[in-house]
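Lab notebook: predicted structure, single chain.

Context: the supervisor wants predicted structures on file for every construct in the current expression panel, including those that have not yet been purified. This is the next one on the list. No modifications to the sequence; it matches the entry in the shared construct table.
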Amino acid sequence: MMALIMITSVAAGTAVADTGMEEAEPADEVFVDDDGGAVLVYDEDDGIDDEASGEFGVDISESVAYALVSDEIEDDVSAAFSMVLDNDGLESSGSLAADRPADVEDFSMDVTGEQTESTNDFDANLELALAAADSPPEATADESGSTSGSVVMGADDLATQGEFDVSHNAPPDSPEIGLDMEITETGDDYTLEMAQQNEIVEFETDDWDTEDAAQATLEDEFEVVAQDLGSDVTVTIHDYDFEDDVNAMGDGHLDIEYTIELENAKDGLEQLVAEDLATDPTLDVTQSEADEIAADILDAELETFELAFAEDDTTVDGHWDVAFSGFESSAYAVMDLAEASDEMDDDAADEFDDYEEMYEAQAAADLTETTEWDVTFDAAGGSQEFVVDVTSEADNWDAYTDELADRDIDSPEFVIDAHAETVGDEIDLEMGLEVGQEAIIETAITTMADDLQNDPTVDDDALELVSAFDEADLELMQFDLDMDDGTVTFETGASFDDLGAFEAHLEDGYHGLTVEHIYGDDDAGYVYVTDMADDDDDEDDIREHSIVADDTEIHMPGDWDEDHPRLDMEEVDNYLETDVGDDESDDDDSIPGFGAVAALVALLSIAMWARFDR
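Prediction complete. Output recorded below exactly as produced.
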């Protein structure tokens, strides 16, 4: 899609400068016909690459856009890609064979994923081995690292745990640093159990060089927190050791274990949150409403919070284990808070209504989603190896989609399958993707239009163009790319319900003339317009049009018999597998256009980005 945008923008040349409906430059030649219409001819720009060839155009009466462009490439690449998009979904497939980069010793990738009414699974594996450089640095450090873990999320709880380790080359005799922290919640009280080893810079050593100094420092630090929360704090040191002058800069090393107890902290935290909500100028909430929302937000319970890491001369390793429960009240409170925002418009409010129903469906189905990963990295002698494994699955997914259906919410379906590997001196890739979603195009374009309407930097002309695109009602888009034997070929087309929605924009682009058809090939661009001349007009009258310049060559009726090219509607029909062009004749009123090709495809590209970036 983006290739077509660039190609058509360049090929259109002096006709329309870019994907916007800017005014076209004067034509090089004008051929006026007996009916008062005309063909505006734009000669090929000498600056355009002569190696590229093809055709493109838009037909308004048949409501189609089409382009076919070929060019030469230097890279030794063999590839094929195709995509079909309609209102039932998207289907694409592709393959690629390219030279293996010299530093890639081995590469493999497998990605599979499926989301249907009954299942939601994803599995990805990547392995990559890179060779050492021909002239590696004199001293290449051996390093390695790994991490593994999981995230489990339900409607009412969240848990994550995992571990990591990294080997490295720190300065010799570096002091050990690290921490081992655990936080527990009991009613309104919080308890922090901490063991830490840390390097203390020289100017702070007085705060830690005795146990009494450490006690006072900790009390001062946490008293500030306690005052903000209106709670009481108790600091208890269980083990203490401090070493002076561990390096030439006079720094110290602290090894300490202690407990911090905050009593009645939750009430104070609720008050702080409530005060912030009630005084926020962007929120429309009373103090009592703010109190209730704050209490609900903090209603989630901390089940587990453990975090630890340790670092020495050669390694860093650690682990974590965090779990919360009782999210239901918190989730609804966040939704209520969002709806109370002054910045919430009707469309955003509707979206939050959908989110609330989706959350209710998740809770009713007891949907639980689990993601796990395992990543390793090794570097030795300049060579490097990476291994990545990621999996995800959903329990009770079928019950969840049933609950969505009961609430008239569609669940998008997709299947992805991708495989890549090194084969000899090449890297081969094959991929397939299917996305099934009712009204996917309409939803994408509506989303794009809503986003632009809420963007203060977008002007009225752009909004009108997007509105016309929405009214045109894109029904089908197809794109194909083929690269082989030094040649790349792009073919793309789209069909709409009614491209007449762009009539006003095309008239603006062509100085008030009604555009019927635009066609471009290697030789020139041809714009077919109506209402160019009245019955008694002569050449001087034609030159009054803004689309005509002093050096434009005028051909009046009876002075010419050239046949100007148009889109081959049978070719477009065969490509899109539609029924356009059945009534085509020499005086057909079909209507393509230069800037329209680029503008229509650009808008479609933006629409799809808006949809799949969410």
